[in-house]
Specification:
Elements: E1 6-7, H1 13-18, E2 24-29, H2 34-50, E3 55-60, H3 65-70, E4 78-83, E5 86-92, H4 97-102
Parallel strand pairs: 1-3, 2-3
Antiparallel strand pairs: 2-4, 4-5
Length: 108
């Protein structure tokens, strides 16, 4: 399993997120926005440290409206959890690494 942050698109959302065998953490971001870039850095650390236990992904919300709609995005940036194809909890803004990991039962 990859220990890198993956880029999810409208075309890959079902396969990469909804059909994933592992829990999935998805950051919906706006490229170039400082808060989104901060969130991506946190997600990259999670991917490096927990790569075999959780899929870590990002979605450019403007370029991928179908994935954004499927997640019922409320704001940007925002992190969503998906387990067994089901949409779980979401966190707005730039939460801490531990707060994000708790979405899928990992971390502190």
């Amino acid at each position: 399993m990859s220990s890198k942050l993956i880029e999810v698109t409208d075309e890959s959302f079902e396969a990469d997120v909804l059909r994933a065998e592992l829990p999935v953490l998805v950051a919906f971001v706006e490229p170039g926005a400082s808060s989104s870039e901060s969130l991506v850095k946190v997600m990259e650390k999670i991917a490096e440290e927990y790569g075999g236990r959780v899929v870590v992904a990002k979605v450019d919300f403007e370029a991928n409206p179908k994935a954004t709609y499927a997640a019922k995005l409320q704001s940007v940036p925002e992190v969503h959890s998906f387990v067994n194809g089901g949409h779980g909890i979401s966190l707005e803004g730039v939460p801490s690494k531990d707060e994000i990991l708790q979405l899928v039962g990992l971390g502190g």
